[in-house]
Amino acid sequence: MSLKKSILRKVYLEKRNSLSPQDYQRRNEQLAQRCLDFLAQHPYSVVHSFLPITQKKEPDTWPIIQGLQSRGITVVVSKSDLKSNLLYHYPLSSETLLQPNRWGIPEPVAGEEEFPVGQIEAVLVPLLAFDQNGHRVGYGKGYYDRFLIQCQPDALKIGLSLEPPVSAIEDVDEALDVRLHHCITPDKVWSFQG
Length: 194
Fold this sequence. Notes:
Elements: E1 2-3, H1 5-17, H2 21-40, E2 46-48, H3 62-70, E3 74-81, E4 86-91, E5 98-100, E6 106-108, E7 122-125, E8 129-130, E9 136-137, H4 143-150, E10 156-160, E11 168-169, E12 182-184, E13 189-191
Parallel strand pairs: 1-11, 2-3, 2-7, 7-10, 10-12
Antiparallel strand pairs: 3-4, 5-6, 8-9, 12-13
Helix pairs in contact: 2-3
């Protein structure tokens, strides 16, 4: 069964909101462990991660970030430019000051030197839903699609989802929607190579 993005956004936001605190925590613990295990198989030195909007019950990336940093991996995070609808990227450290933007996304406070997109080797991509072909549904602003197009062609694009995939997203725009290489859920790593 295929569904349109607008319907998937509504359905999957409701699914997230209906998760009990215990189920949300359990799924996040499984997701973080599966993600760290997966990334340990690849020799990355720079990984970009989104920072979670906890009030929207997004996947909690903090345990993943801490696990990567403990391995000596540079973690890069974004700051949204609301005028240009672009993301700017900065290294994350224990000294980085974060402040929520108007959507509740924690972002670095300006002042650090911007991190070059071309040096990012893997990107943990936020999403609301994804399908068995590696397409994703985000919040609809296109920030991540514009960012992913700027990345090196061999930079790994990894979605993180608390839910399994739908069979297909009906209204994918092949010219604008950037396909994932993998999507990690609490139960499985989905791969979309080839």
